[in-house]
Amino acid sequence: MLAAHHYFFIVINQSFQKNLQNHIQNIQQKDHNAFVNLYFEEAQKKAKALDEKQQKKESIGKMTGKIIGLKDLFCYQDHPVQACSKILQGFIAQIQATAVQRLLDEDAIIIGHQNCDEFGMGASNENSIFGPVLHPTHDNYTPGGSSGGSAVAVKKNMCSIALGTDTGGSVRQPAAFCGVIGLKPTYARISRHGVIAYASSLDTVGILSKSIQSIQQTLTVVAGQDIWDNTVSRKPVPVYTNPIQEDKKKMRIAYIKEMMMGDILQTSVQKQTKYTIEKMKKLGYRVDEISFPYLSYVLPTYHIISNAEASTNLARYDGVRYGYRTKNYTNLEEMYTKTRTEGFGKEVKRRILLGTFVLTAERYRQYFLKAQKVRRLVQDYFLKIFQSYDYIITPTTPTTAFAHEAYSKNPQKMYSTDLYTVPASLAGIPAIALPNGADHKGLPISIQLMAPFFEEHRLLHFAEHLMEINVVDGGL
Ligand code: GLN
Questions:
Q1: Ligand 1: which of 127, 302, 418, 448 to mutate, judged by most atoms within 8 Å of the beta carbon?
Q2: Residues of 412-448 as b/e, b for ≥16 C-beta within 10 angstroms?
Q3: Known active-site residue 71
Q4: Which residue from 57, 129, 190, 390 has the highest number of Cβ atoms inside 10 Å of its Cβ?
C-alpha cells in the first residue's frame, strides 16, 4: 500500500495536466467562436513540465498552472496575432508583451488567442474577421465587446483568467454581458508594451475571471514599471491578495443620479441596481446620491479622442511592414490605398476617417482640443468626488446583452452601450464590473464600482466583501 504522503504526490503530480485537459474539453465541446488560435500542444508540454517540477519539489511560480487566454491584441512571441483584422493576416509576433512575459515567468499556461472586435473597436464582437462570438448561454445574443471571446471563455471555463484591453469599456462591458468579473485598473498600472494599440491615452490592460483572488494574483504579477513602456507608473505594486485592515462599514459610497434614470436604462437593470443600493443602506452603509453633470458629453469626447488616436496608430498598417498586402497594384500609392481599403473593416475605416477629420488644421480646435478640455473636466470632477467618497457605484451597462445584428447597422446605438463605462476610461481611474443577478430572460446584470487612482487593492477587497455578504449577487 502507498503511504498517504506518497499518494498525495501522485494526485498532485497529474493535476496541472488534468486541469488543462478539463479546459481543453470545454473548448472542444462548444467554443462559441471564442478562440481564434489554440496552443494545446505547447500548453500540454508546459503542464507536463510543471507536474514534473512539482513532483521534484522544485520551486514553482505564482501563476503555476493557471490557464490563461489572451485577447488577439497581445503579442505572444512567435505566435500569430492579428487584432481580428484582415490587415494583420499572417503576422507573427516578434516581441513578447510585457504582461504575457510576466505571466510566463510565473509558470502560467497560455491556451490560446481570443476573438475580439477588430483592433478593439466595437461593443458586440461582431466586427471581427473571424466572425461573431456567441453569448455563453443565449446563442442569438452577443457577448458584448470588444473582449467578447475572453468573457465567454472565462464564463464557460475554457480558461480561468483572460487578459483583455479596456479603452472605453471593452473588459467591463463583455464581463457584464457574460456574467463574469472584469477589472480595468488605473491607466498606466500595467505595461502596454506588446499590446496592439487602438487609442494610446485610453488603452488599459484589463483582467477577466470568475474569481477575485485570481484577478488579485494576476494584477500582482503583471502590474508595475517596465523599461519598454515609459508611461507605466513607477508606484510600487502591492501584493493585491494581502488582506486590508479597514472597517468596510466606514466606506463612503456614492451613486450617480444620471446613471439611474433615462430612456437608455433598461428597467430590470435599474431595479436591480436600486435594490443593491437599498440593501447596502439597510446594512448600515452610507450611500449618497451625487450628480455627474458631464454624462451627455462623455461619448462624443471619447469618440473624438479615441478616433484621433486610432487614426495615427493605424497609419502604420500600409502593406509594407506588417501582415496583409493587396495582390494587384501598379505603384506604391495604389498599393497603400488598396491594402488599407481591403484590409480594414467598416467600423475601423469609419474611425480612421473621423479621427483624421478631427485632427485637420481646420477642425482641430473645434473638436480635438475641445474634447481634451472636457476630458480634463471629467477627470477633475472625479477627483473632487473622491475627496468625499471612497467608491462610486453604477450599473456597468444600461442594458443586458442585445441580440446579434440588433445594433450593428446603428453605430450611435452601439456606442450608447458604453455610456457608463467611458467615464472611468476618460478619467483613467480603476473600475470593476461584478455580476449582479439576471433579467427575466436570464441574461446577466452587472454592477460597476469605481475607485480613486491606484486604489485597486482596496477596490478588489471591497468588491469581494460585497459579494461575500451577498449585497452583490455574484452568481458565478
Ligand atoms: N465599445 C467601445 C468602442 O467601441 C470600447 C472599446 C474598447 O474599450 N476597446 O470603442
A1: 418
A2: eebbbbbbbbbbbbbbbbbbbbbbbbbbeeebbbbbb
A3: yes
A4: 190
Given a contact cutoff of 8 angstroms between Cβ atoms, the answer to whether 454 and 403 are in contact is no
Element (H, E) at 163: strand 161-166
- Given a cut of 90, whether residue 249 has pLDDT beyond it is no
Copy the grid coordinates of residue 346. 467598416
- The amino acid that residue 53 corresponds to is K
- Judge contact between 182 and 219, C-beta under 8 A: no
Cα–Cα distance measured from residue 222 to residue 202, given in angstroms and rounded to the nearest whole number: 18
C-alpha cell at 422: 467611458
pLDDT tens digit string along 331-349?
Answer: 999 999 999 999 999 999 9
Structure confidence by residue, pLDDT tens digits, 7-21: 444 444 469 999 999
User: Is 211 considered catalytic here?
Assistant: no
Cα–ligand 1 centroid distance for 83 (angstroms): 13
| Beta-carbon-side half-sphere exposure of residue 139 (alpha carbons within 13 Å) | 4
Cβ of residue 170 lying under 6 Å from some atom of ligand 1 = yes
